[in-house]
Amino acid sequence: MNSKAIITSALPYANGEIHLGHVASTYLPADITTRFLRQKAVEAYYICASDDFGTPILIQSEKEGKTPEDYVEHWNKRDLEDFEAFNIKFDFFYKTSSPENRKFVQDVFKKLEEGGHIYENEIIQLYCNTDKKFLPDRYVIGICPYCNADDQYSDLCEKCGRVPDEIKDPRCSICGQTPVKEKTKHYFFKLKNFSNKLAEYLDNNNNLQKDVKKYVQNWIKEGLTDWDITRDISWGIPIPIDSEKEKVFYGWFDNHLAYISSTIKFLNDNGKDGKNFWNESDIYHFIGKDIVYHHYLFLPAMRLGINEEYKLPDYIPTRGHLTLQSKKISKSRNWYIGLKEFLEIFPADYLRFYLVSINPYSQDDLNFDWDEFATKINSELIGNLGNLVNRALGFTVKSFNGVVPNPEDFDNMDKESEKMINELASDLSVLMEENHLDRALKKILQFSAHFNQYFQHKEPWKNGPGTNSCVFLSVNAVRSLAIATYPFMPESSQKIWSQLGLDGDVATQGFAEISNISLKQNHKLGSVSPLFEKVEESVIEEQKSKLGEPN
């Protein structure tokens, strides 16, 4: 593990509210990882930005009768507010339309051109006679030529994750009419020339998921296609060529460069050498499986094309899509849950807990189910973790006036429980470093379940031999939980910390502190009260009734 880290996540399109599908695969795992790395004394920064360019923005702003500038400004601000309400704590949240990113993108293009990696080519572009415009990317929908899935965009098949060379049975996404073909000049990036270097990068990077690497390597073996990096639209970063005033960069050329430009700005503004820091750090790009092609091929190839002036990613944690009640999320059909609306009803930590618990480190899709959500919160979060905190601290207040007693000699059960505390930090660290966040959370729940059983077996309410040791170890186990749960549930962990009568912010505690038994005899607890409230069935049924029709 490096002493420095830069964490990024796929940039949210500035064209609508953040919903649960957005946060599950990228933003929440990235936030948890950042918090964990800081607990490990890593100088880690979480950087993100809104993705302001591209046809989805232009299409939606046109539909709403707004300028793209006004449209993205609104959603940049709103998205950040929603993320912050969910306790996603970016160190810097910027935008791809920033002057810094505009300049950086144009500079990268010039370097690629000077390196011989750019060429011009006349292409046949779909053109809509009804709307009087060329139709790049998401202006076109049709059938994917690779998997035959219908209603896919021409720049990305959401089912198989590939970028179609030419979509079948195309139609205009605005008016639905069949477009015609017209000639236009575009600029291309020589992606296929980097096949060998990309294969070498994948082979040598053992931090990348094996299953993802395997099918990306198969794409390379099948043969890569040079990448059309310009578009005949008005909204985007202009091509830095005087004769090409009517062309802009394809959104996927500029957006991931904002990882770098936003990071450099943040670090430079805070008195650091941004470029050096980037190249000295572990680089994390958290993504969903639908943009693997871009992050495993386009992104590293461009950095290779400028001679690795900025290092390639060390980690690209990739997770599947979130479905809702086992059906694909659809905003148009109201088959989705907005993050803002959810947080008006339930605490952020409830959602953070649930999403992590159902989200393995894999490309397998995960499913949000309202009934399962209620069960997990009520039985696992409240009935297990919350129960231990309440019974251990509550009993100490009731029977020892909130003062930690002096333990007796440990019996075998006490020694086993002491060992559980001593080993928890190392057990969790391995899982967290490998990005198995769901397994780490499960380990925490196993830990609290053990101490619930330990407390029940010892029966301290009978005030028999070993009572003091039971209370002493149980209270220290709660302290371990406060630190261990911080990356996952920052608000709840701070509440536990305060109820323990400990000052300051639990976030300042090092990860190794999880396994220290540091609450000694005569330590005074704080005010103790239940951490969580039960999720009622009536509330769940009400939420179900708000959904529209699934696909």
Assign the CATH superfamily of the largest domain. Answer: HUPs
Count of DSSP H/I helices:
18
The coarse silhouette is: elongated
Helix content: 40-55%
Q: Assign the CATH architecture of the largest domain.
A: 3-Layer(aba) Sandwich
- The total domain count is 3
Please count the beta strands (DSSP E, at least 2 residues each). Answer: 17
- Low-pLDDT ranges: none
Spatial arrangement of strands, main beta sheet: 3-2-1-13-14
User: What is the overall pLDDT average?
Assistant: 94
Helix/strand-derived category reads: alpha/beta
* Straight-line distance between termini: 44 Å
| CATH class categorisation of the largest domain | Alpha Beta
Radius of gyration: 26 Å
Strand content: 5-15%
Give the biggest sheet: 5 strands, parallel
Under CATH, the topology of the largest domain is which? Rossmann fold
Report on the architecture of this protein.
The protein is elongated. The protein has helices spanning 20-39, 55-64, 68-85, 99-114, 195-204, 210-222, 251-254, 257-269, 274-280, 292-305, 339-343, 348-357, 370-400, 412-433, 437-458, 467-484, 490-499, 537-545, and strands spanning 4-9, 43-50, 92-95, 118-128, 133-134, 140-143, 152-153, 168-172, 180-189, 227-228, 230-231, 248-249, 282-288, 318-319, 322-324, 327-328, 366-368. A hairpin with a 4-residue loop joins β4 and β5. The longest helix is centred in the C-terminal third of the chain and has 31 residues, at 370-400. The strands form five sheets. The chain has a five-stranded parallel sheet with strand order 3-2-1-13-14, sandwiched between helices. It folds into three domains: 4-106 and 251-348, HUPs (Rossmann fold), CATH 3.40.50; 116-194 and 204-249, Methionyl-trna Synthetase, domain 2 (Beta Complex); 370-515, Isoleucyl-tRNA Synthetase, Domain 1, CATH 1.10.730. The mean pLDDT is 94. It starts with a strand and ends in a 6-residue tail after the last helix. The protein is built from 18 helices and 17 strands. The chain is an alpha/beta fold and 551 residues long.
